[in-house]
Amino acid sequence: MSAAPPAWGVQYTLSLPSEDAARAAAAELSGMGHRLTAVRAHDHFRFVPSSFWYGKPSMDPELEGWWQVFSLAVYSGYERMALEPFLRSERTRMARVARAHCGFQQGYSEGHAVTAERVFQRDGLVHEQADAEVALPSPLPKDSVRPPAGPPWKCSEVGEPAAVVQAVVAVAERMYGSAEDVPDAVGWLLDEEFAFGEPYGSTGEFLGDLADAVAHQGTCTDTTVEAVPFLMELVCDDNVAPGSRLVLLGDLLRLAASGPAAEVSLADRITALGGGWEESAAEYLTRRAIGSGLPRLLSRWENESDAVRFALAALTALCGSRDQRALSGLAVLPTPAGSSRADVVSLVAALLSDNREGLVPALSGLASWSPRVAEKAASPNVDLQSLGLAILPDLVLEDVASGIATEPDLP
Questions:
Q1: Most buried pick, 7, 73, 198, 205, via CB within 10 A?
Q2: Taking the model in full, what pTM does it have?
């Protein structure tokens, strides 16, 4: 007989505008069966002499005067993967509790319950229920069945690593001449140490390094804005293997969606703080720079593969363009009714035509089978158009992945 899986612990963090609101939320979480619940003023440890954080500047000064709830919930009887759909609903429930008390869910962490309980910071502990566990439904919920995908795209090779590196460096040399005037995100390609360094084992590794140089961990900066023309040039360069061009187009999709993605992830916080959303200058300028180069990409429409056309239509939507070529071209892509691709195409079409009424059924269709979309859509504070833009890159890239033929790693 196999041993029972270890109990799983999740620590939720809620931010509330007052001590009373925090204590009320903590009592509610304790009533749900949470084992440990603490209430502390925001930045509590900055005022504790024995703490590492004592006297240090606040990491989040916008929350000065707010209070936080830290609550440990324990779930047992199942392996972690089996719990995923239920834990997703729990995150949604915690966010709902925070909103009900005029705050927001700030995050969560998870691990084995024994470890989570041992490291739980008990300062400000207001509720403790030894051995308490959250009651689980029987049977556990399961994720909805995903519709069948559309027909596979025609495969595009990413090319051998050395050939792709050579083609990318050639574009850098053509655009910038030398490393002296090159944007920071591109300069390493023209550096002597790079030229004589170890060769890449796979094209994906090189393209990943390039994406990280342009936007470290996906964050847009002034460096990102400067590098956009270079990425656009690579997507248009026929010496860069077609599959690699599609990967680079995916990077542009994510960069163009960085502002809406941040807005959606922070929607509850923004509402709780009583402010409005304003994307960063770098996010705005990055998207504008992509939009400026979009006509050149679209001028190649007739010569591109269907997978690239699909990605180009999505990029056009992300940049706020109402290009009819993209909208009409979208309609003739291989998109069987009832497929997951059909739902994504409906979203792209609604965004391209600025049809806010069409967004509702498109997003509902996606949320019916995509847990990530459903979780993001759960907050009433999320703007529908921003949600559509935020989720679009991942949906498109998951679909076109079948059209990218990767090469085996070199020995």
A1: 73
A2: 0.91
